[in-house]
C-alpha cells in the first residue's frame, strides 16, 4: 500500500513553502545569484554566498527561501544553526562536513556570527575542499573578514550581499500581502523605516487594531510601542513578566524563570518558546535583539522599582549558578550574571559583552609557550616576558589562553597565579608578586591552608588591556576565581599603570595598594582584596544590586565597613577569644562584644543574629567531644565548667567526683579539642564538617 503519511507530509511541506514564498518580498539581487548558482552548478558559478546585515533584517527568512528553492530544484539541503554549536573547527565539521562529499548539496549556515572566527579556516582550508557544484550560504550579522580578499581565487567564487531595510515599494508590497489596509501604510513605513522585523510586527498590530486612532512618536518609543502592543495579548501578567525576564537576561531557562516568577516556570517557559520573536539556543531562550532592547528599556522606564526587584532576583539566581558551575560552564555562567549590568552606563565603559566574537578560553598547552611569550613581550617588553617564562616553568597550569575560532594559536593570555609561602623564593623574583607578598604580610598574613592569588599578564593581541572581547573573558575569569577559589585569603590584579581601570577596580572592591611597580620599562598598578575582611557572600550581595543612574554615573564602590566585614584573627588571638567567649557565655550580653561574632565561622552559619550563631557554635564544639568515646571524660569536664555553669574549677571537680588535678587535666585536653574544632571551622568553613565525617 502507498505511504499515505509520507504523501501528506510532502503536501504540507509544499504548502508551507508556497506560503513562505507568497509572503516573501524584496531581495531580488541575491535571489537571482542564488538561483543561478543552484541551476548552473558549474565551476564558474559562485560557491559561497555570504549574507550579512543587522538583526531583524530578514536573514533567516531569506535562508529559508533559499532552502525551499534548492529543494524545489532537486538539491540536497543541509541547514545548520551556528547558535547551537561550539565555535570550533571540530563542531563545524561534525555538523556541516557532509557537504564535502555531495556535489548536489546546498549547505545553509544561519547565525554565523556565533562562529565567525572560523572564517580564515573556512576560506583557506574547509571550503576549498568543496566538490564542484556544491553551494554554501553563510548568514551573519557581521560582514565577512579580510581573509577572503587575500586570496584572489575568491573574487569570483564568493558573492557578498548586505541586507538592509526594505525599499519603500517592497515595504508597501509586504504590507499589502499581510492585508494591512493602504490608509496606514505610510504611517507604518515612516515609523519603522522599512526595518523588516519592525514592519512585520507593526503589520500584525495593524491587522487587529485601529492604528489611525493611536498616538505614535517619531523616535525609539515607536518600536517599544509596537512590541508592547504585540505582546500585550499575553495570557496573564505572569506571561508578561516572563517575557521581561527573557528580555533582561542573556539567556532564559526554566530555572531562571522559577527563581524569578515561581512554580509557573515550566508553563511560562513553554509559552516563551512558542513566541515568534524568541529563539532557542544551546544555553536557553533569547528574544530577538530588537525585541530585547525595547522591552528592557520600556520596563526600566515604566517601572524602575519593579525593574530593580526583577534584576535583583535574577542576579541572585545567576550568581548562585555561577558559583555552582564547573568546568567549561563557569565562564558562560559568570557572563550571564554580569550581562544584567549591560545598561549600567558605568560598567559598560569597561565591558563589551561581545558574546558573538568567536573567541573562547582554553588551557595553555606546551605548544602555546612560544606564542604566549611573544604576545607578552610585544605588549609588555622583554623583562615581563622573562618573568612570564619563570611562571610558565613554575606554574604552567595558571595560564589561560584565549583563541579565535579560526586558529589554535592564542590571541590573548592571562595567568591566575596561586601562591603560598613555600613559593616565597619564586615570588620574590617577580616584582609584582613580590609587592603583593609584601603587602599582605605587613597587614593580615596568611593562615594555615590559606593562599593568595595574583592575576598577571593580561594581554590581548592588538588591543592589550583596552575593552575587547578578550579582555571581557579575562575579567570574567578573575570574577570566576573570586567565586570558586577555596581558602583564598587575598586576590591581587596587576594592570598597566594608568587611570582607565582604577574606577572599575574600585567598583569591584579591588583596592589600589601599589601605584607603580616597574618591570623593565613597563609600569604596573596592583589592586587587592582581602576576602577574609569582605567575604565572598557580602561581595556578591552588593553585586546583585544595580545602579539606575544615568550613563555618566559612577556607582558607589562596595563597602569596607558594616555588615559582612570580617575580623581576621591569628591563632593565638582566636584561641583567647574562644576561651573568653566560653567564660562569658552565661553573662547577659557577654557574647555581643566578642570578636568571634565577625569571623568566617559565624558568617557561614547564615543566621541573622551573630550572637545566636556563636552560642550555637560553642555548644556544637563541646558536644562534638562526645562523638569520640575516648573523649567522653573531656566532654564532661568542659560541659560542667562552661555549659552547666560551675562557678569554679573546684566546684566542677567536686560535682564530677574528681580530684582537682584530674579535672584540670581533662579540662585542658577537652579545651584543646574544642579550640582545634573551631579553628578548623574558621579556616575550612563547611569543609571542616566534611573532613570530620
Description:
It contains 31 helices and 14 strands. The chain is an alpha/beta fold and 693 residues long. The chain has a seven-stranded mixed β-sheet, with helices on both faces. Strands 2-3-4-1-5 form a five-stranded parallel β-sheet. A two-stranded antiparallel sheet has the order 6-7. The chain is elongated. The N and C termini lie far apart (69 Å).
Number of distinct beta strands: 14
Low-confidence runs (pLDDT<50, min 5 residues)? 213-219, 548-553, 557-563
What order do the strands of the largest sheet run in, or round the barrel if closed? 8-9-10-11-12-14-13
Mind summarizing the main beta sheet? Answer: 7 strands, mixed
| Amount of beta strand | 5-15%
Multimer state: single chain
Determine the structural class based on helices, strands and strand pairing: alpha/beta
What is the typical, i.e. mean, pLDDT?
84
**Total number of helices:** 31
- Overall geometry comes to elongated
Alpha-carbon Rg, integer? 32 Å
How far apart the termini lie comes to: 69 Å
Give the helix level as a range of percent: 40-55%
How would you concisely characterize the structure shown here?
The chain has 693 residues and is of the alpha/beta class. It contains 31 helices and 14 strands.
Topology overview:
Elements: H1 4-22, H2 28-40, E1 48-52, H3 59-72, E2 76-81, H4 89-96, E3 105-110, H5 119-126, E4 135-140, H6 147-150, H7 154-157, E5 158-162, H8 168-177, H9 185-192, H10 196-208, H11 220-231, H12 237-248, H13 254-261, H14 265-274, E6 278-281, E7 284-287, H15 289-302, H16 304-324, H17 330-339, E8 359-363, H18 369-380, H19 382-394, E9 399-404, E10 410-419, H20 424-428, H21 431-442, E11 451-460, H22 469-484, E12 488-496, H23 502-507, E13 511-519, E14 522-530, H24 536-543, H25 571-584, H26 600-605, H27 610-623, H28 632-643, H29 649-656, H30 660-684, H31 687-692
Parallel strand pairs: 1-4, 1-5, 2-3, 3-4, 11-12
Antiparallel strand pairs: 6-7, 8-9, 9-10, 10-11, 12-14, 13-14
